[in-house]
Specification:
Blueprint lengths: L1 H8 L7 H10 L1 E5 L5 E6 L13 E6 L11 H7 L7 H4 L46
Antiparallel strand pairs: 1-2, 2-3
Length: 137
């Protein structure tokens, strides 16, 4: 019951009731990635009122976990942004050696990155050396 109540009242967790209904009615399942995200498409080439991309289809993802756009793997990212029409599920996509695995965005958590000199880092900022002279017009 809690799951369905959250589905109706929230939009930031996973998917909304409207997205689920639209997916059920118009979506064509395309594939699933290693994180459990499901990808869909809709043919809109015969819909004159749709002013979206020129490819004639809409593409979207239903996230398995809380929505995090950075959790889309590189192969699926290319498909989502119309860089390729072949999905990684069809192509047996092999990531390149320079592609790193997904790391969640840690902003706002204790593991967030704080550069040197930030007021949030435990170390103190180095003293000003005096070799800087401010410009005055």
């Amino acid at each position: 019951m809690k799951k369905y109540l959250l589905l109706i009242l929230t939009w930031w967790g996973n998917t909304t009731l409207g997205t689920m209904f639209h997916t059920w009615r118009h979506g064509t399942y395309v594939g699933k990635d290693q994180f459990g995200n499901k990808y869909y498409k809709q043919d809109v080439s015969n819909n004159a009122s749709y002013s979206g991309n020129r490819k004639g289809e809409r593409r979207w993802v239903i996230y398995a976990n809380p929505a995090d756009a950075s959790a889309i793997p590189p192969g699926w990212h290319g498909w989502m942004h119309y860089r390729t029409d072949i999905t990684p599920a069809q192509d047996e996509y092999i990531p390149r050696e320079w592609e790193k695995p997904h790391q969640p965005n840690m902003t706002g958590t204790a593991q967030a990155y704080h550069p040197g000199g930030s007021i949030l880092t435990p170390e103190s900022r180095p003293a000003v050396s005096g070799d800087y002279e401010a410009w005055t017009p």
